[in-house]
Structure to design on (192 residues):
């Protein structure tokens, strides 16, 4: 059943919301101990820190006052996550040969989603996109960029679609600006 907008609230992740983030990601840390650090560190650091180390690294960011994204709540229960921040906050994204910058414009990037199993396929990802765009706009962003997966007609497991799929971004007002590989697009929403 589709979630009602009135059932949803969104909050930037701060130290006050850390327990909710932990509850959402569970003891496994989301997908394979990620704790949403995949795009924030080198691949070597990510593998070395898998699980507890990635959790500690994310906690250090949050405790330092860095907002790494937003949490979605359904009836006050943490239900979903969207990582949104200025692109330069994602070191691994900046080094990506496939998802390299297409121009010198300042952009905010949406790089990751995590939705609790009980809230999947109920419209929460689209609501998270809209909330992430609103949050970025409130922080002064004029362009929000994302890097969705092209499904090629296949159904993808959540771990394979953590960056979202093209159609959901297009449905929420994003435009395709590049297709750097067979399975990846760069999409943008211009706010100003």
């Amino acid at each position: 059943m589709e979630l009602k907008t009135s059932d949803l609230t969104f909050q930037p992740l701060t130290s006050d919301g850390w327990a909710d983030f932990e509850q959402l990601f569970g003891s496994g840390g989301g997908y394979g101990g990620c704790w949403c650090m995949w795009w924030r560190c080198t691949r070597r650091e990510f593998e070395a820190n898998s699980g507890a180390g990635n959790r500690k690294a994310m906690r250090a960011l949050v405790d330092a006052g860095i907002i790494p994204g937003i949490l979605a709540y359904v009836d006050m229960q943490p239900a979903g996550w969207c990582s949104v921040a200025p692109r330069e906050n994602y070191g691994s994204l900046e080094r990506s040969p496939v998802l390299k910058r297409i121009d010198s414009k300042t952009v905010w990037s949406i790089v990751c989603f995590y939705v609790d199993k009980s809230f999947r396929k109920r419209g929460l990802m689209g609501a998270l996109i809209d909330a992430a765009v609103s949050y970025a706009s409130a922080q002064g962003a004029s362009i929000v960029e994302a890097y969705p997966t092209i499904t090629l007609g296949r159904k993808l497991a959540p771990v394979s679609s953590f960056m979202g799929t093209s159609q959901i971004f297009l449905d929420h007002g994003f435009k395709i600006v590049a297709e750097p590989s067979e399975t990846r697009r760069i999409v943008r929403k211009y706010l100003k």
